[in-house]
Amino acid sequence: MNFKRLFVALMAACLAFTACEQDEDLGIARILSNPAELSFAEGDGSDVIHLTASRDWMVSSYPDWVALSKVKGKAAVAPQDITVSVNANPGFNRTGSIVFTIGLAEKQTVTIAQAGAQGEVKMGSGTVGDPFTVPGVIKYVTDLGADVTSSNEVFIKGKISKIASSGTYTDGGTYGNATFYISEDGSETGPQFYCYRILYLGNRKFKSGDTDIKVGDDAIICGKVVNYKGNTPETSQNSAFLYSLNGKNEGGEPDPGPTPGTAKGSGTLADPYNPAGAAAFAQSLGSDVQSPEPVYIKGKISKVGTSYAASGTYGNATFNIVDVADGTGDFYVFQTYYLGNRQWKTGDTDVKEGDEVIVCGPVINYKGNTPETVGKGASYVYSLNGVTDGGNPGTDPTPSTPRGTGTLEDPYNAAAANAFASSLESGAKSDSVYVAGRISSIKYTFSAQYGTATFNISDDGSTSGSQFTCYSVYYLGNHPWVEGDTQIAVGDDVIIRGKLTNYQGNTPETSSKEAYIFSLTSNGTGPGPGPDPGTGDSVVIDFTAQGYANASDFSSLTVNGVTVTGSMGSNTKNGPKYYNTGTAVRFYSGNTFTVSAGKEIKGIVLEYGSGDGTNDITATPGTFSSPNWSGSAASVTFSVGGTTGHRRVAKISVSF
């Protein structure tokens, strides 16, 4: 359903409205929204934006999948509520912006996101085995720059959504070509790609007796592409053809795609998989199941999707490989790190088509239809044209053998922690376990601002072999780190206690802020074990795990002797409520919540939900610097400031 019911009016008319219709001017043009971002689950949903404007305002743009309760209003001292509604999203995740303006003087942008039943949009790589999707080719063409034609032919897949006037093959007459649009689902509501003067199947002119095209047909286009005039991504004139129509290519036979090749190899360094072997292994794991151990894959680069240089600060590359010997098979290497399992840096040799590589890392059958390496740098190029890290051929250590049972007496090693977390459903969390290892790399050291750190551990502190990510973990005793505490360093031996998760189904790691360093030995001289977790040194109040109904009132919750009690406080209209949007309890301006226990509380950490507001929070007694409270009390009361707006609290961690 397309929600858009307005505009677009000329800007001059907008300015005239602002100048002539305005009843009230409250000084300098200012417009503010609370919150500044909204997120929705894939089902029907709605939320409220509280807009404060010192002059008459209007909405200048918003996504066509969004409905707004009002699109203009008068200046007012009090915030104005605008209800934002979305329908269920059966497609891919989507994002957009709502732009509020006061003429040309001031604007406020609210970002909006909605999950989709199909997850993230697949972009494709432009090969016959992995054609660009419509969003993928639009991004690829846009990145080329204005009026720059691609140097190579690419493949694009979509459904015909619209046929240009006089644009069918029959209409093309002696020219034998057709002009039409394609989209992901055959509708005209989402992104569309312009297929300009496309020759017929077999890269020839259409002739009488051939099957013509119609809206709804599945098509794969092959040809060069261009961003015409910098604003119209399309196929380059007279240089593209219809490769496949409704699954059949020239001659009426089913499109065979790339030659699959014969699966070879066992995935070891001595006997790496070829692309067909890696694809078969990934498919054997099941949909979205990550391999418990890294494997080795050997091939020749057939297509570079994103080079190392193009990825910028991410330092990874994405490309396809085929069999070195005969060019068969096709395997997608996604977001892979450089030689030595590190990020690429300026001065390093980049990848290109024709390079021979050995890639090491875990694999996954993404969405059940795309065998690939696990992304976000979980894999790396072990060998590039026969050269390994350091410029010489070498031997990579054998991936670690999983060991341990996850208890304090027998903690998991990195390989076992990866395997255990990978066995979880996407996004699921385990009970608390123990993981032991030596810090091999650090992404974020501890800071007083956040109180957590993120780092990798391995068996021996090297960056080869199995690595496990300790993500956003607290310090000894499950407390936020403070100035004066020992800082971590590469080479430190640690034992981690906490929950593990399989983030997004492809990244095994500790669950954010639900794990901590139980023991820290800084090169043999550190502080050693932290408090015994059996003494009840911390309690986590997780509002998101209580099964609350959407928009239900919140009064109190008790977990392991700790009680959180909500109150309307000075707010005479709104009391605390739990909402699925933001997955948190909303404490409105003037509301209070009290954390109490039958013993002395030493620390409290608030974890906010998505789309959280900006109202100040104060606490008494003790010292509070959001999100961390410290002090000594059996009961602590937090108050939400402001006259409008709210804060979204998802979890409260209490330490003693």
Secondary structure layout plus pairing:
Layout lengths: L10 H11 L9 E4 L2 E4 L4 E9 L3 E5 L4 E3 L3 E2 L6 E7 L7 E9 L3 E9 L19 H11 L9 E10 L14 E6 L9 E6 L19 E11 L3 E14 L29 H10 L10 E12 L10 E6 L8 E6 L19 E6 L1 E4 L3 E4 L6 E5 L29 H9 L10 E12 L8 E6 L9 E6 L19 E11 L3 E15 L6 E2 L8 E5 L9 E2 L2 E4 L2 E6 L9 E3 L4 E5 L3 E17 L8 E4 L2 E3 L2 E13 L5 E10 L1
Parallel strand pairs: 2-9
Antiparallel strand pairs: 1-3, 3-7, 4-6, 4-8, 5-7, 8-9, 10-11, 10-13, 11-12, 13-14, 15-16, 15-18, 16-17, 18-21, 19-20, 22-23, 22-25, 23-24, 25-26, 26-27, 28-38, 29-32, 30-31, 31-34, 32-33, 33-38, 34-37, 34-38, 35-37, 36-37
How would you portray this structure in words?
This protein has 656 residues and is mainly beta. It contains 4 helices and 38 strands. Strands 28, 29, 30, 31, 32, 33, 34, 35, 36, 37 and 38 form an 11-stranded antiparallel β-sheet that branches. A 6-stranded antiparallel β-sheet has the order 24-23-22-25-26-27. The longest helix has 11 residues, at 11-21.
